[in-house]
Amino acid sequence: MNLLYCMFHFLLFIQLAMFYHYTVVFIFIFITL
């Protein structure tokens, strides 16, 4: 149960990190254009 809970939070963290990364890239491209 605890392992599943940790795994869920890990995937959630990866998803959030990817979303943040793409948001930063999009803003950077928007500024440079």
Can you walk through the features of this model?
The protein has one helix spanning 2-32. The protein has 33 residues and is an all-alpha fold. The radius of gyration is 14 Å and the shape is rod-shaped. The chain starts with a helix and ends with a helix. The model has no long low-confidence stretch (mean pLDDT 92).
Q: Tell me about the biggest sheet?
A: none
Global outline:
rod-shaped
Mean pLDDT comes to 92
Q: Report the total helices.
A: 1
Low-pLDDT runs of 5+ residues are none
H/E element order:
H
Percentage of helical residues?
over 70%
**What is the strand tally?**
0
What fraction of the residues are assigned to beta strands by DSSP? Answer: under 5%
Radius of gyration: 14 Å
Specify the structural class: mainly alpha
Distance between the termini: 48 Å
Defining key terms:
mainly alpha, membrane, rod-shaped
Summary, kept brief:
Keywords: Membrane, Transmembrane, Transmembrane helix. The protein has 33 residues and is mainly α. The protein is 94% helix and 0% strand.
